[in-house]
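seq as requested:
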Amino acid sequence: MQSSHLLLEEPIRMASILEPSKASFFPAMTKIVGTLGPRSRSVEVLSGCLKAGMSVARFDFSWHDPEYHQETLENLKAAVKLTKKLCAVMLDTVGPELQVVNKSEKAISLEADATVILTPDEGHEASSNLLPINFDGLSKAVKKGDTIFIGQYLFTGSETTSVWLEVSEVQGNDVVCVIKNTATLTGALFTLHASQIRIELPTLSDKDKEVISSWGVKNKIDFLSLSYTRHAEDVRYAREFLSKQGDLYQTQIFAKIENIEGLNHFDEILQEADGIILSRGNLGIDLPPEKVFLFQKAALYKCNVAGKPAVVTRVVDSMTDNLRPTRAEATDVANAVLDGSDAILLGAETLRGLYPVETISTVGKICAEAEKVFNQDLYFKKTVKYVGEPMTHLESIASSAVRAAIKVKASVIICFTSSGRAARLIAKYRPTMPVLSVVIPRLKTNQLKWSFSGAFEARQSLIVRGLFPMLADPRHPAESTSATNESVLKVALDHGKASGVVKPHDRVVVCQKVGDASVVKIIELED
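struct tokens:
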């Protein structure tokens, strides 16, 4: 895998480090995905999350039923109306996830050096020496000496809420393990991860299909997070399934890379998927610790040059219980931005963490600081070099718009788009200023009724670094007369002024279609 060195601008003045951060309408160009759960489902908290910078809400179906998630989503819609901030919806599949079933929900204490049996017989009560699991093929998949991790959402094998086991023997369908660290497991469900072991279960389970075809279709999900993606075929299969589910043919698929198998097929998966989620929790267990950063840098580089959004997970675990991240975590968030991440995904930190709003705010501030020292010049040259010549028509327009915006120190790039592709291409070159993506709705019909497209395209740019969407009035077509284009531009500029992105005498770069031609123009604003 090809990697790239840290894209950091030199030199940084020490005095500038002490300057207070300035608040702005867009807290950061890097997006934040928040996982919604018990601690983040009231209208009040969700409004706080949106104001703090969350632009994508993730619904994790590994736990709780669709009714519970529906309630949360209704509250999110109310929060969106209250705050007037757009938010996309991501459905996270369960996939071939192994789980320990603790029906009584009593805390289970496990002592180091003792033994515990993992059994597929779910009729048993979970205890300190017997843990029922939801998979009967584990005994066939593992052998003596293999490593198994069990924990509630976060598991590192070193904290008190997760446990690290070593397989000592297999007895029929049961797996006998030696406990390597003392821990207490609490809750009804714990995730089980067998390190570097292939689990013979489908990537898109029957339960996942059921949830997608009911909850997903009803709520017109913007993104499908495909857990445990191992092959490009997994993405193709999921896309074929979505294509038969009403409006979900427009849903984007983000492949979640969680194990060695997915890593080995990364290039083919990237080609098929709309974006990538680097699930560093599970990957951190499958990979030796010293290799995790290498995978992150190489994978983000590949996503960047392909122009596909990359999302990094597990950055501020300690903020689940604490108001401040550790020094290592704060540095980790910044390095994810400098490595080229589009978005940061928060899991337990917002799902069951004590400080969901503060966590989003803190991560946003760290991202904004890292963006200030991101070496855009070097990044731009590398991207142009990678694309090569001759460039496609759209690629040439996108790179020219970014180059022009940087040269004239524009405060914003405004891009008129109907599919969202032009705006995403501009964002691929990582301009230092926000890209206002004006999505022009298109009229379509299924022979029974007329409807407008555009809402999907607008929300799907909420996961791309630097892209900020607004939906134009459908009465203004994308390729139209100069008069209607001017009126749409005026609406976009008014939006920019209201949000404080553009001020009098600022320069703005506009990218739009006029007839068959694509045009990049620079305008200077009057008083």
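DSSP finds 18 helices and 24 strands in the chain.
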